[in-house]
Design a protein that fits this description.
nine-stranded mixed sheet; UDP-N-acetylmuramoyl-L-alanine:D-glutamate ligase; 309 residues; binds adenosine monophosphate; single chain; four-stranded mixed sheet; alpha/beta
Length: 309
């Protein structure tokens, strides 16, 4: 089954303690769709400017990503400039040039309207609602957001999260949105305002998933080399949704597997700048890392009877 994603296609300029790159391919929809393309067909809705090179379009097409929803407007492509210190969990935004993104009104091609899986990447929550209204009856809708929308459009965002199945945010965003520093309490507050399933990404500390009746904690794959965390969140979401769309399995076990696939995909993205690692990745490496993460985190239960000690 195919996934529809609406988000940003970007040029990123990034500085980490290990290097610096200028105007490389990035954007939430790019990371998401590349990651999801290892599992299923992806339809991408976004906007680019006149300066967006054919080379990047060829790459996305080579991943079988359907680009009929990729509009080209006059002007420049969205540009994000960010920096990370030694705490790679926190990005510092140095500049955001919206460019063609400023007037972006997502138009969903008719052929995408029956998409079963929809990912509303980080864009204006009012646009997220508009997209939602253009898709007939999706089976699963997940959405992301960022600090900017939490502070500037909290009411619109509340409306979005009530209308989607899964909210995927990082820990700082969960705290900010709920105005609660403790993550478990923050999750409860978000469930109280109508979030059905909350997934909290915690960078190198892994992922927590909260529903009304359960909590699932997944570790991140322990990496020796973390080069650039940009795109990790969207790559996670792509692996997560991609696996769900591939299998259609939304049981508790299926969703937990999807979280591990998401974490595995993100662990590859952070090994290099931009999409460089995902461009070289093959499916066997994904499966191998899934298995080794499972082996690393397995622990035994206690005996049914008697003292465990
Ligand atoms: P993440 O997965 O959260 O690291 O997302 C990284 C991507 O988000 C980068 O490639 C940026 O181009 C993109 N990005 C940064 N700021 C924004 C924004 N305000 N709107 C949409 N996309 C953004």
């Amino acid at each position: 089954m195919s996934i529809l994603v609406v988000g940003s296609v970007a040029f990123d300029s990034i500085e980490t303690p290990f290097g610096k790159v200028d105007n490389v391919l990035g954007g939430s929809a790019v990371y998401f769709s590349t990651s999801a393309s290892f599992f299923t067909d992806v339809n991408l809705v976004a906007v680019i400017g006149e300066d967006f090179p054919q080379e990047h379009i060829d790459f996305l097409s080579s991943r079988n990503i359907d680009l009929r929803g990729l509009a080209r407007d006059s002007g420049k492509t969205f540009h994000w400039q960010g920096r990370y210190g030694y705490d790679l969990n926190e990005a510092q935004t140095l500049a955001t040039h919206l460019n063609v993104f400023e007037t972006f009104k997502p138009r969903i091609p008719e052929s995408y309207a029956d998409s079963d899986y929809l990912f509303l990447a980080n864009i204006d929550p009012d646009l997220q609602m508009e997209v939602l209204s253009q898709v007939d009856s999706p089976k699963i809708v997940a959405s992301d957001t960022m600090n900017y929308w939490i502070s500037s459009k909290p009411e619109s965002l509340r409306n979005v999260v009530k209308n989607v199945d899964i909210l995927i945010v990082n820990d700082a965003e969960a705290r900010q949105f709920s105005q609660e520093p403790n993550l478990v309490k923050a999750a409860r507050k978000l469930l109280d305002i109508g979030v059905k399933t909350l997934i909290v990404k915690r960078g190198e500390y892994g992922v927590l998933m909260f529903t009304r009746s359960s909590i699932f904690s997944a570790p991140a794959y322990p990496l020796e080399e973390v080069f650039d965390p940009t795109g990790a969140g969207d790559t996670f979401a792509g692996g997560f949704m991609g696996y769900l769309a591939n299998t259609g399995d939304t049981s508790d076990e299926g969703v937990r597997r999807a979280i591990i696939f998401g974490s595995v995909m993100a662990s590859f993205t952070v090994e290099d700048f931009s999409l460089n690692r995902l461009k070289k990745l093959n499916y066997n490496e994904i499966v191998e890392r899934y298995r080794s993460l499972k082996a690393m985190t397995h622990f035994e239960g206690l005996p049914e009877m008697g003292s465990p000690l």
